[in-house]
Amino acid sequence: MDYGPDWPPRRRPPEYPHALLRRCVAVVILYAVIWALGSVLLELRLQALRDVTGEPVTTYTTITGSPHHGRH
Known about the structure:
about 0% strand; rod-shaped
């Protein structure tokens, strides 16, 4: 019995078993890059505000002089 030149059938190339792991790592790296960029931009903005006012600048706001401030 002659099976022909294509016998035995060729093996399929192995699929990459960790495709989900690669995607998760890519997402983590993407979020890390976005976080780092946001951190740098915030620091640059705070530096610019410090240069304008000459005082230390924070990322929070204190409300004073409000009619509701100090009421119980």
